[in-house]
Amino acid sequence: MTAMYDKTTTGLLLVDPYNDFLAPEGKIYPRTKEVSESVNLLDHLREIVAAVRKAGIRVFFVPHHRAEPDDYETWNHPTPYQLGAKARQSFAKGSWGGEFHADFQPQQGDVMIKEHWGSSGFANTDLDHQLKMHGLQKVILIGMIANTCIESTGRFGMELGYHVTLVKDATSAFSKEAMHAAHEINGPTFAHAILTTEELLAAL
After folding, report:
1. How does the average pLDDT of the chain come out, rounded?
2. Where are the domains of the chain?
């Protein structure tokens, strides 16, 4: 059953719209290229952001930590995923890859959430506080990547009591198998709605 979304209850979480993910010249784009192009990712992201802005729904930027060379040097338990990001300098601080894609720039009224170190946009950030202070109960998740940051943020949001919507063609992954797991296997265990872009736009 499709939920209805309006500006009094809903926030759009735009997760990790970095050049390294979304631009063809980005460091990570080659790994997501096949899936991103198969779902028409960029056009869907543009359509959704434009539509929610028109509807007056607030946009929350939910960015991953921008890499620095000395990341995790004194940490007890960095994950292999984090160490890989350090080695690649994914979204490196001060670099073009660590800037938001030109089509997804913050505008007046948007909320910039503190950077997350792991996968969840809620863990150790101010996302929950900001949503509560804006009186919002529903979150729509779009951006990168389906089976990591999108899934982790959605799961955490559900545990905190938010109504969670995933948009399966407004995200991407490193493989078709990962996309399938994110939306067909894992998503239904925590999300309240799993929609296409077309279905979401009709519900706004």
Report:
1. 95
2. 10-203
